């Protein structure tokens, strides 16, 4: 009786389950462009750093597209320079028209002033200004006004040419932007032909070989990242005393003589069956209550003196038995 009591007092401090597995965010490497593989790294079940080249798809069309896009950019830039030259020419024409308009404008102003003076004198004294002289002043005023109006039209025409030339510059610059976007897209397409490791980890499940033809979406291989954890499915009745940070003893079936250390990281809010593809419908006449299981995430500890899980080939799906100290 005393032994049973001591065992109970000891066992009530822990919660354990054998429904637990090593888990990780597996990264699946897939092709984004179609083509034949001309290079595939022979690194099955080997560790690779982030950025390591994994495979290369034959670059035929994308390189030509990039060269064409770059040539189009150069052509568009030349058009911009040509449009800027047209702007400069239009500004020079406008300056010349303004310079040439100064004399007609000044002559027109003087003619209007002379006509106004003659008419004022004629009103004061009809004999002060001869009729012929007044008629000549009026004719001069009309002719100089016409010349001034023509000069102003020349300036307006030059202004319009400047506006058109500047709009052509804007349109040419827009074309350059579009052509540069095409270059960027071609670079992206060309970059998609070189498949690199997005994260550090072990390469697994390689499904292609040198010379294989792949299409967009074809899975080539997968990478198991260095960071792994435990997903333990505890019964809902075992969660009452579980709290984040509680110490966990981890036994891996593959290494029964090694006791890894860890801690409780989080408890999923919801039983596993709630996220199934076809959740159970319990609103029926016949119902049998079943204790549900809730996924609990357990992280490995890397403290000095404890077994380092990074030195062992732990991978997703491996069976473990975690024991959480809850008291």
Keywords:
327 residues, alpha+beta, Elongation Factor Tu (Ef-tu), domain 3, Helix Hairpins, 2 domains, 6-stranded antiparallel β-barrel, 4-stranded antiparallel β-sheet, 3 helices, 41% helix, 25% strand
Explain the layout of strands and helices:
Layout: H1 2-11, E1 14-16, E2 20-23, E3 27-30, E4 35-40, E5 47-48, E6 53-57, H2 61-124, H3 131-191, E7 194-196, E8 201-204, E9 213-214, E10 219-225, E11 229-235, E12 247-252, E13 255-267, E14 293-300, E15 319-325
Antiparallel strand pairs: 1-15, 2-11, 2-15, 3-10, 4-6, 4-9, 5-8, 6-7, 8-10, 11-14, 12-13, 12-15, 13-14
Explain this structure.
- The protein has 327 residues and is an alpha+beta fold.
- The protein folds into two domains: 15-24 and 225-325, Beta Barrel (Elongation Factor Tu (Ef-tu), domain 3), CATH 2.40.30.170; 61-191, Helix Hairpins, CATH 1.10.287.620.
- The chain is 41% helix and 25% strand.
- It has three helices and 15 strands.
- Strands 2-11-14-13-12-15 form a six-stranded antiparallel beta barrel. It has a four-stranded antiparallel beta sheet with strand order 3-10-8-5, with no helix packed on it.
- A hairpin with a 2-residue loop joins strand 12 and strand 13 (255-267).
- Helix 2 packs antiparallel against helix 3.
- It is elongated, with a radius of gyration of 44 Å.
- The model has no long low-confidence stretch (mean pLDDT 80).
């Amino acid at each position: 009786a005393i032994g049973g009591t001591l065992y109970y007092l000891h066992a009530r401090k822990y919660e354990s389950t054998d429904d637990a597995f090593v888990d990780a965010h597996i990264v699946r490497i897939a092709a984004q462009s179609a083509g034949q593989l001309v290079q595939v790294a022979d690194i099955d079940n080997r560790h690779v750093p982030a950025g390591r080249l994994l495979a290369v798809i034959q670059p035929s069309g994308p390189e030509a597209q990039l060269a064409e896009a770059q040539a189009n950019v150069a052509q568009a830039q030349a058009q911009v320079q040509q449009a800027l030259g047209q702007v400069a020419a239009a500004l020079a024409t406008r300056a010349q028209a303004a310079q040439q308009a100064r004399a007609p404008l000044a002559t027109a102003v003087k003619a209007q002033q002379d006509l106004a003076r003659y008419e004022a004198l004629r009103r004061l004294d009809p004999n002060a200004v001869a009729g012929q002289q007044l008629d000549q002043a009026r004719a001069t005023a009309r002719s100089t006004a016409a010349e001034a109006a023509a000069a102003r039209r020349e300036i307006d025409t030059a202004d319009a040419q400047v506006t058109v030339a500047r709009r052509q510059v804007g349109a040419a610059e827009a074309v350059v932007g579009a052509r540069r976007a095409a270059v960027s897209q071609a670079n992206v397409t060309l970059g998609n032909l070189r498949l690199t490791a997005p994260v550090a980890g072990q390469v697994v499940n390689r499904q292609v070989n040198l010379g294989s033809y792949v299409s967009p979406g074809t899975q080539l291989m997968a990478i198991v990242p260095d960071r792994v954890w435990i997903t333990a499915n505890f019964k809902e009745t075992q969660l009452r005393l579980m709290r984040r940070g509680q110490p966990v003893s981890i036994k891996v079936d593959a290494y029964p003589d090694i006791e890894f250390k860890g801690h409780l990281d989080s408890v999923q809010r919801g039983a596993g069956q709630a996220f199934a593809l076809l959740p159970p419908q319990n609103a029926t006449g016949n119902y049998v209550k079943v204790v549900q299981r809730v996924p609990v995430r357990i992280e490995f500890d890397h403290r000095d003196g404890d077994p380092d899980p990074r030195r062992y080939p732990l991978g997703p799906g491996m069976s473990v038995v975690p024991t959480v100290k809850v008291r």
